[in-house]
Specification:
This protein is an alpha/beta fold and 478 residues long. Among the domains are: 256 residues, NagB/RpiA/CoA transferase-like (Rossmann fold, 3-Layer(aba) Sandwich); 76 residues, no CATH class. The chain is 53% helix and 10% strand. Strands 1-10-7-4-2-3 form a six-stranded parallel sheet, with helices on both faces. The protein has a four-stranded mixed sheet with strand order 8-5-6-9, with helices on both faces. It is elongated and about 110 Å long.
């Protein structure tokens, strides 16, 4: 996927001015947040927080053992009949998938939801080589028909209204006119059923890799994941190396916290553990299963001070809670991962110089940290990236000048008092919203109370002087 993170300010402005997007994202994120809270804390806040503690401990332990667990997983997968490949970067992963497709003479790929394949741009790569790729997750299917990218980690079309989805299906697939959500879903299911039956290649991601059993674990709701991984003769899974966990017991814990955080369910409709290709005596399932472990910068993150970003289980809870995401949607962030986690991962995967604006797309309210199921300290890492932006002299020069000027004024009591009086006078004669560029990029969307002529310090000093004067007056006995 092409990177457009440097355009965040402009794309965010367009999103803010789009009433349909504002309505759709507002409804979608609030609904998801409410469902998350009700599900996670159904048995009490203490129980929900204990689940978060357990999930965080599991991911931390597995991350600390990452190299060893990857080797163990590879050995057990090979023993299960799975062919294991390693891709150091996105291009290598795409080439490996294409080679597999050509070796097995595959021309139609049915694909389930996968952020890793979005990361590598796999769809475009395969299509340029003459292989048709069909997204089978309903949201991803709509996104593909619209020739867009997902705007949310879990809900790809959170930015779409029902009317726009209806119009897309009518235009792109010939669906008869209907306003019924059930009928739209039924039509899409029938349409995709034919693709499932025709596909000779199934492509998926993976929620977890279980090292002790060599299993690929998937959690889905629509059933398309099960179709993709069982109907075609060839199944390829592209999975980030950070998805490794140690035991089935770990998986049992994480499958309780993930759906609660993502969709507000105690358990997803479909929970799979794929242990290899079908055996000779079996009549269904793929004949060939490949798992490609994707690095694509993860090893560098693992050895950096941002390693704590790797436990992310892609639930999307931080997006739903983020006040910035709620008004900009996902496309404004300009790459695969939006929201708070995207503001960290995008600079780490693509270079801070190419996404330096994203760490500033945060109010530092801390809500993302509060809802993260594995307790990632997202605000701390966003601040670290801001510090690094300044240290590497990547920050906006005008902003740097403004900060230095502000610091100089606040270091001098006299200058601070003078600037306060000037500011108060300006506010009286020059409305806050009418300031010129570049200040108006901030002021035209905000209002502040009328500044007083005297600062708190001045008022306090006057109060003290008045008190001292009263204390010096002789006492009069009435």
């Amino acid at each position: 996927m092409k990177l457009h993170a440097h355009k965040f300010i402009d794309t965010a402005q367009k999103a803010i001015n789009n009433p349909n997007l504002q309505s759709a994202v507002d409804i979608g994120t609030k609904l998801a947040s409410d469902k998350r809270d009700k599900s996670l804390f159904a048995d009490g806040i203490e129980h929900g927080e204990k689940m978060r503690d357990q999930a965080a401990a599991i991911k931390k332990r597995c991350l600390n053992q990452l190299p060893g667990l990857l080797e163990k997983a590879e050995a057990n997968m090979i023993a299960n009949g799975i062919k294991v490949l390693w891709a150091s970067e996105a291009a290598e992963a795409n080439e490996q998938v294409l080679e597999i497709a050509r070796n097995h003479r595959c021309y139609l790929a049915a694909k389930s939801k996968s952020m890793a394949t979005e990361e590598t741009g796999l769809n475009e790569y395969l299509e340029s080589a003459g292989i048709e790729v069909v997204e089978t997750d309903l949201g991803e299917f709509i996104v593909q028909l619209c020739e867009e990218t997902p705007s949310h980690i879990v809900v790809p079309i959170v930015h779409k209204t029902k009317a726009s989805i209806r119009d897309t299906l009518i235009k792109k697939t010939g669906m008869p006119y209907t306003d019924s959500t059930d009928e739209m879903t039924r039509f899409a299911r029938t349409y995709l059923r034919e693709k499932f039956l025709q596909a000779d290649l199934g492509i998926s991601g993976g929620n977890f890799i279980i090292a002790e059993t060599g299993s690929l674990a998937l959690v889905t709701n629509e059933g398309n994941g099960r179709m993709v991984t069982s109907l075609p003769n060839v199944h390829v899974a592209l999975v980030g190396i950070e998805k490794i966990i140690e035991t089935v017991e770990d998986y049992a814990t994480l499958t309780q916290i993930l759906p609660r955080s993502a969709t507000g369910q105690s358990l997803t409709t479909y929970t799979q553990m794929i242990n290899g290709p079908r055996h000779p005596e079996e009549t269904d399932g793929p004949k060939h299963v490949y798992v490609i472990f994707l690095d694509n910068g993860r090893s560098s993150i693992y050895t950096s001070k941002f390693a704590d970003s790797l436990p992310c289980i892609r639930c999307g809870a931080c997006l739903n809670a983020c006040p910035v995401y709620q008004v900009t949607g996902g496309h404004a962030y300009g790459w695969v991962y939006p929201g708070p986690i995207g503001s960290i991962l995008t600079p780490l995967f693509n270079g801070l110089q190419n996404a330096k604006v994203l760490p500033d797309a945060c109010s530092l309210c801390g809500k993302c940290k509060e809802v993260c199921p594995v307790k990632i300290d997202l605000p701390r890492m966003l601040l670290e990236l801001r510090h690094e932006t300044v240290d590497r002299k990547l920050s906006n020069k005008l902003w740097d000048i403004g900060i230095k000027l502000w610091a100089a004024i606040n270091k001098s009591p006299k200058m601070y008092q003078i600037s306060g009086r000037i500011g108060a006078s300006m506010c009286r004669v020059w409305p806050f919203q009418n300031y010129p560029w570049p200040i108006n990029r901030w002021t035209k969307y905000r209002s502040i109370p009328q500044l007083k002529n005297k600062s708190f310090t001045n008022l306090w000093m006057e109060r003290q002087l008045k008190q001292e004067k009263n204390d010096r007056q002789p006492y009069k006995d009435s």
